[in-house]
Design brief:
Blueprint lengths: L2 E4 L30 E4 L1 H8 L5 E7 H6 L10 E5 L1 H8 L7 E5 L7 H6 L3 E5 L5 H13 L4 E4 L9 H6 L9 E3 L7 H6 L3 E5 L6 E2 L10 E5 L8 H6 L2 E4 L11 H12 L3
Parallel strand pairs: 1-4, 3-4, 6-7, 6-11, 7-8, 9-11, 9-12, 10-12
Antiparallel strand pairs: 2-5, 3-5
Length: about 270
Amino acid sequence: MAHIVEVSDADDPRVDDFRDLSRADRRPDRPGGRGLVIAEGVVVVERLLASPYPVRALFGVRRRIDELADALVDLDAPAYVTDADVMAQVVGFHLNRGVLAVADRAPAVDPADLIGRSRNLAVLEGVGDHENLGALFRNAAALGVDGVLLGAGCSDPLYRRSVRVSMGHVLRVPFTSLETWPDGVKLLQDNGFRVAALTPRSDSIPLRAAGLEHGRVAVLLGSEGPGLTDEAIAAADLAVRIPMSGDVDSLNVATAGAIAFHAMNGG
């Protein structure tokens, strides 16, 4: 069972992992920081507790810690209980969700291992917006994607905002980085994957005609603005577009991803 510890002093060093999250230079989940995984809210904290990430501690108001009682039975870590005012002083802002948890990172997944055990994958290039990244992971979890491969220019999926927007699903969808880009696409092809680059180009194949539901398939998705680079599209086996009406020429990358993921699973 988690060790319940009362905290009444905002300067208590035991809650330093949760301190000053509103200041970019102090956030432990920022690049160059301590690299901790931070979960916010009861639902996301529960998913962190059920994930492979080693939980260091929880910090929250009594009501939220009590809501997590069943999930804390097997946890050997402190759960710091405080009031909303002290919590706001520590965190740096008022947290409506009332509870946080921090964890160390799990060991990185080997790309070859993830590819070897998957049937369908999402491959991202230049997805730098943390909210879009989190939404992509939530869509991947909901629509049966086995994992996510990160190409050049992607943000950290374990950034606090990405974890929150994904509703914690980034903690359960396996992901890893491809060390070379776009040459890393060949690793997929060497393992029997057909790689489809999602692009609005008029000469690309309409989604319904692409047959993404057959065999092992990886869908390439590009950045929110320019989309996939010419090099990434050239490395793919085929270019696929989502037909659109009117003057709309593109979709938000998370929305486009959801449509493609649904197609990969026979939707």
